[in-house]
Amino acid sequence: MSVLDLRTVFLTGVIINAICTLVAVLLWRSSRDRFDGTGLWAADFAAQTAAFFLIGLRGVLPDVVSISIGNALSVLGALVGLLGLGRFWGKPVFTGVQWGIFAVYLALHNYYTYFEPSLAARNLLFSASLLALCGQCAWLLLYRVSSAVRSMSLIAGIAMTGLTVVSAVRIVIEVFVPIQTQDYMHSGTANAMYIVLYLALIVFLAYALALMVNRRLLADLGSQEQKFSKAFHSSPDAVILTRLADGSIYEVNDTFTRMTGFTAAEVIGKTTVDLGLWADANDREIFIGRLREHGSVFGLEFTFRIKSGELLVGQLFSDVLVINEVPTIVASISDITERKRAEERLIVAMQESDMLRERAERLGAEKEIILREVHHRIKNNLSTVHGLLSLQANRLSDPQAAKSLRDAVGRVRSMGLLYDKLYRAESIGRMSMKTFLERLVAEIAELYPAPVPVAVSADIEEATLDAKILSPLGIMMNELVTNAMKYAFTGRASGRLDVRSRIEDRGITIIVEDNGIGLPDGIDIDRSTGFGMQLVGLLAKQIGATIRVERGEGTRFVIEFTAQSPERTV
Q1: Do 248 and 210 sit in the same domain of this protein?
Q2: Residue 227 maps to a domain
Q3: What is the Cα–Cα distance from 17 to 206, expressed in whole angstroms?
Q4: For labelling, which of 165, 236, 263, 484 has a CA lying 20 to 30 Å from the CA of 24?
Q5: 372 domain residue, yes or no
C-alpha cells in the first residue's frame, strides 16, 4: 500500500475516533450522576484520536512525538478504558499490574525506537500490550460481572474479544512473517488491513458501550418504578395523585378505594370536586392556598364525603412534585374518624360526675392507644413521602435539585425514625435519647457511605427526653453526620467519626467529631449561607441550645442545651 494510502487510513481513523469520543462524552454527560467510569471511556477514545493523529503525521512530526508519544497514548487509552469498565461495574482492577504493563511497554518501545530500531519489535510490543489490556476488558465484561447483568455487557464483551483476537493474530503474523522495512508508512497491505479492522472494532465498541449504558439505565429505572409502585400501593393510608391546577386525579392506591368506596375507574380523570370528596367546597381552596404558601401540608384535618355519603375525618399530608413538567399533588390521607370520636367521648366523660371516672379512665387508655396509632400512621406517611422524594430525586437531571431532594429525604427519615420509636415507647411523647440517636447515626452512616472506610461510633448516655426536643435534635444530627460522611474525608485513606454525649447538672452536651480535612475557616454557623448549616442554627435556637465549631485535627461540633428535668434511666 502506498504512503498516501496508509496515511489516509490513519487520518480516517482520527475522524472515526473523534466521533466515538463525542459519543462517549454524551454518554458521560447523561449518566455521570448515576454511573461511575463513563468519563474514563471518553478519555480512552480521546487518547486514541490523538494517537491516530500523531502516528498519521509520521515523517512530518519529530519521531519522539509521532512514534513515542503517539503509540504511548494508544496503550494508555486502553488502560484507562479498562479502569473505566471496572468502575462502571464496581469490579476492582489491580492498577499496579496495569501501570506495570504500561511502564514495561514504554521502556522496550523506546529501546527499539532509538537504541536498536526495529519496526517489527515495536509492532509486536504494541499488539502484546493491547492483547493484555483488551483481554482483561473482555474477561471483566463476559465473566467477572454477575450473571444477572451479563446480558447487558455481552455485546461490549464481544467487541473487546474482537480487539483481543485481532491483536493476537497480529502477534502471530509479526513472529512468523516479520516486517522487513523500518518505514512504517511502507509497511505493507497487511498492516493497513489490521488498522482498518481495528477501526471497525472501535466503532462497534462505541455502539456496544452506548447500548450497555442504556440497558443498565432502563434496568435501574424499572427497578425504581417497581419500588415506587410497591410503596404506593402498599401504603396503609389513602394516597392520591392529582393535578395542582384543577384537582384532576391521575392515580389512587388500593387503600383509597377501600376507604372511599370508589373504584379506580370511577375516579381517574375526574376531579376531587366532581366526586364531591370535600364535605365543604371551601376546604379545597384552603388546602391549595396552604400548598402554594408553604409548598407542603403536614397534618391538616379535613372532613371528606365518601361514596356512600358518610363523612370521614382525614388527616392530610401533601407535597407538590413536578411530573412530566406538570405540577402534581401527592397527598396521603389518614382516616382519624374513630380518633376524633374517641376524643369527643373523652371530653364528655371528663365533664361527667365521679361516678363516670372509671369510664373516663378506660377512655384515657383508649386515647393512648389511638395516639400510638397516630405515631404509627405519621411514621408510615413519612415513609411514603421518603419513597416519593427518593424516586423524584433519582429522576431529576439537575444535580443540585436532586441533591436538595436527597437532603430532604434525610430529614424526613430522621422524623420517621422518631415517630417509629415513639410508637414503640412505653411513655407517649417521651423516649430514650440513647436509643433514638444511636439508631439514627447508624442509619445515616449506612445510607451515606463515605468514599473511604470510616469507623463510626456513637456513645450516647441514657436520658428520657420529650419528642419536642428529640425531633429538632434528630434533624440537627442528620445534617451534621450526613455532611461529615459526604465531605469530611475527601482525599483521605480512612477516617473516624465519633458521636457522644455527657449529662451533667447543668444540662446535656452532644459532640460530633471527625478527623477529616476540617471545615474552611470562613464557615460559621451563624453566618453560613448553606441551608444545612442555617437549619442547624435555627433548630439549636428552637430548643435553647448553643452550638460551636472547634477546629483542630478535623472538626468538632459541640451542642449544649438544658432539657426540662431530663430523666436519667438505669
Answers
A1: no
A2: no
A3: 9
A4: 165
A5: no
* Sheet-wide strand order for 554-561: 454-459, 495-504, 507-514, 554-561, 546-552
Whether 357 is covered by a domain: the verdict is no
Does 135 share its domain with 258? Answer: no
Contacts of 141 (CB under 8 A, 6+ apart): 85, 89, 153, 154, 156, 157, 160
For residue 163, the model assigns a pLDDT of 92
The yes-or-no verdict on residue 412 having pLDDT over 90 is: no
φ, ψ (nearest 5 deg) of residue 546:
-110, 145
- Tell me how long the chain is: 570
Cα dist. 115→57, 68, 155, 272, 414 in Å? 22, 13, 42, 85, 68
Q: What percent of the chain has pLDDT over 70?
A: 78
Q: Are residues 158 and 265 in the same domain?
A: no
| Inter-residue contact 440 to 412 (CB < 8 Å) | no
Residues 51 and 194 in one domain: yes
Same domain, 101 and 187: yes
Residue 560 has what DSSP assignment?
E
Minimal CA–CA distance to 542: which of 491, 479, 469? 469
Q: Which helix (H) or strand (E) holds 432?
A: strand 430-432
Say what the pTM is: 0.48
Residues 173 and 252 in one domain: no
- How deeply is 376 buried, as exposed, middle or buried, from its count of CB atoms within 10 A (0-12, 13-18, 19+)? middle
What does 184-200 look like in DSSP terms, one character per residue? GGGS-HHHHHHHHHHHH
Q: How confident is the model at residue 161 (pLDDT cuts 50, 70, 90)?
A: very high
Helices 467-483 and 433-447, packing angle to 10 deg: 30
Q: Which residues are bridge partners to 328 per DSSP?
A: 243, 321
Task: Tell me whether residue 147 is in a domain.
Answer: yes
Same domain, 257 and 215: no
Calpha distance 31→219 (Å, rounded): 14
Could you list the residue range(s) of the whole structural domain that residue 498 is in? 444-570
